[in-house]
Amino acid sequence: MPRVCFIVNPIAGRGQALERWRQIEPLAARLGEYGVKFTERPGHGTDLARLAIQEGYDRVVSIGGDGTLNEVGNGLVGTDAALAVIPAGRGNDWVRTAGVPTDAAEGCRLAFGGRVARMDVGLAHGYRYFFNAAGFGFDAEVCARVNTYGQRFPKFSYVRGVFDTLFHFTGVRVDVEIDGERRRLNRVLLLEVGIGRYFGGGMQVFPQADIADGLFEIAWGEDLGRLELIRLVSLIYSGRHVGHPKVRMARGRKLTADSPEKVVIQLDGEVVGHLPVTFEILPGALNVVLPG
């Protein structure tokens, strides 16, 4: 039986992560050898994950939202330890793709008994790793607003972020290069680079995404009017935007982007900086615990 370390973000989901840990701690004690650590500051999850490896744990469990998952995963990339996830925050988009249970007890059992598989990892050069999606334009502007609203309106922060951005963001000029092929996007509303299928609390941006195929899924929308964008956002939730005449889809291993404008970028739903940026995929760079 593996040694399992739980890393809990006590403020994720307005305390939901801490409550979930309290619910499952007796179960963890019955299932096997475990330890627990609590994050105390931004970025602490990465430090705690590295400490767990030094202490000999085989599996490290993120209990929190997408941001906690990103921090813990950043401490595990390139190691033999495996990442497990018990969701307890906003978004939880990677969980949807991976088929990880949302029930805390089921997630705890999975952490001890699930199978280990390798998944691809994204690297934003100069920043950090990401595990679900990264991008700029509309999605990053939404993230910036969601992070502002989240503490006050946690249930509606994504919806409010989307609608506020719809009425205030008009697009930017961006030069991109995908695996050596250069493109100029004159009024790009968004560009998303994905490993998982979902982003933004359930928007199915990449219906065909595979977390272990060694490729990014890439999507961008250009020259969209406000009404067109509103319709497009409604289509994205069900994945029906694929084939839209103003949506472009591609696959690639490396994407570089720059702009004369100040363009925000996000990694796994967290705003980290501005263009220029280079995204590169690292095939099979992280062990993860999955059902089955």
UniProtKB/TrEMBL annotation:
Keyword NADP: no
Top-level division of the source organism's lineage: Bacteria
Gene Ontology biological process terms in this record: phospholipid biosynthetic process
GO cellular component: plasma membrane
Needed co-factor(s): Mg(2+)
A Pfam family this chain is assigned to: DAGK_cat
Keyword terms: ATP-binding, Kinase, Lipid biosynthesis, Lipid metabolism, Magnesium, Metal-binding, Nucleotide-binding, Phospholipid biosynthesis, Phospholipid metabolism, Transferase
GO molecular function: ATP binding; kinase activity; metal ion binding
Keyword Ion transport among record annotations: no
SUPFAM superfamilies associated with the record: NAD kinase/diacylglycerol kinase-like
Stretches assigned to the DAGKc domain: 1-129
Cross-referenced NCBIfam families: YegS/Rv2252/BmrU family lipid kinase (TIGR00147)
Family designation: Belongs to the diacylglycerol/lipid kinase family.
Descriptive protein name: DAGKc domain-containing protein
Organism of derivation: Symbiobacterium thermophilum
